[in-house]
From TrEMBL:
Keywords: Repeat. The lineage of its organism: Bacteria, Bacillati, Actinomycetota, Actinomycetes, Kitasatosporales. The keyword Repeat applies. PROSITE patterns: CLP_R. Pfam families: Clp_N. Residues 3-188 form the Clp R domain. This is Peptidase.
């Protein structure tokens, strides 16, 4: 089982992501919930790395950007730009849906937060982050998966979390420099290069 390789900090992040998903009434734990749980970390490699990259005082801005993306149904900027190229104004559609059904109607979350009392499943995006974190740990020859590997995975995979982090100056490259003191490629699958 992959979770046996997770450090206490990484397990805490996964538990925190489940809690974020539950509080939001989400049907599953998403990559965004993992990012929110990482932002909650204190006294860990992630918290120190985010502080070094100047994000410690701007976590609320990241949370707001994630909320804005959730209102768009989780569409990334690339998605909304592609739709705009087809003449579809996503902001206008969201506004109309929210006028008819309430704020957050596009998020896909049920209105009744108590709709399901079982365990939250992990979305494909969250599973991708967990799998990529393993590859990144192996590429760095780290024996265990820490919270830093989860954050690196979020920056390496396309999607809303990577866009939001990049907009706040946290990229795979900048994070790798802070964590490992060198520049590496985007891989995590053994293709990381020291530079």
């Amino acid at each position: 089982m992959m979770f046996e390789r997770f450090t206490k900090h990484a397990r805490d992040v996964v538990r925190g992501a489940v809690e974020h998903g539950e509080r939001a009434g989400a049907r599953s734990v998403d990559a965004e919930h993992l990012l929110l749980a990482l932002l909650d970390r204190e006294a860990s490699r992630v918290s120190f790395a985010l502080a070094a990259l100047g994000l410690a005082d701007r976590k609320d801005s990241v949370r707001e950007a994630l909320d804005a993306a959730r209102r768009l149904g989780g569409l990334s900027r690339a998605d909304t730009d592609a739709l705009a190229g087809l003449g579809i104004d996503v902001t206008e559609i969201v506004q109309r849906v929210e006028e008819a059904h309430g704020v957050g109607a596009m998020s896909g979350d049920p209105g009744d937060k108590g709709w399901w009392s079982g365990r939250r499943s992990f979305s494909r995006g969250a599973k991708d982050v967990l799998e990529r974190s393993l590859r990144i740990a192996l590429a760095h020859r780290d024996r265990h998966i820490g919270d830093e590997h989860l954050l690196l995975a979020l920056t390496a995979l396309p999607g809303v979390p990577a866009e939001v982090l990049a907009d706040h100056g946290v990229t795979y490259e900048s994070l790798t420099r802070v964590l490992y003191g060198r520049h590496e490629g985007l891989g995590g699958g053994g293709e990381a290069k020291a530079g």
